[in-house]
Amino acid sequence: MSDPGKAGDLLAQIPKGEGKGLPPVHLWNPDFCGDIDMRIARDGTWYYQGTPIGRKPMVRLFSTIIRRDGDDYFLITPVEKVGIKVDDAPFVAVTLQVEGEGETQVLRFITNVEDEVVAGAEHPIRVEIDPATLEPSPYILVRRNLEALIHRNVFYQLVELAVEREVDGKPWLGVWSSGQFYPIGPSPV
Prior knowledge:
This protein has helices at 6-12, 56-63, 152-161; strands at 32-40, 46-48, 51-52, 66-69, 72-76, 81-86, 91-99, 106-111, 116-118, 125-129, 136-143, 146-150, 163-167, 170-177, 180-186. The protein is mostly beta strands. The strands form 3 sheets. The protein has a 6-stranded mixed β-sheet. A 6-stranded mixed β-sheet has the order 9-8-7-12-11-10. A 3-stranded antiparallel β-sheet has the order 13-14-15, with helices on one face.
């Protein structure tokens, strides 16, 4: 699948819709056609054959046909399924909009591919702490099992909004959104 025209061929197979919603990639089960030389870096940059894809509309279009099965990522059309590499998460949450405050607060994230998600029961926030460095890696679920890494600047905004609350008998700092509390780190004691 190293054919230079492969990415263009894949784009040509995406059904043209009425612009309403995302393609139903979860319903498509075409044959696996191999891996292509496409990678999404941790910073959200998409690469094809080692070169950044500079056309934002093309990246946006590819982002609508990505699917994760287990630990593997694929671009899916009704007739073709190709593997791609994702360094961390396929999206990056680059903007945060805050409405309200306290337990009624609503957090709206916008990703690098212009998806908008409101943190809540369907789009939870989670934070992984690296055991060696203690560095946090925060994520928000964008759709199905596809997450966005929350950009460092956006995470700092979350830290500014954080309140202390007891979780499992221990004090945690976290944020509220859509009536849900999301721990983002242990409270300094």
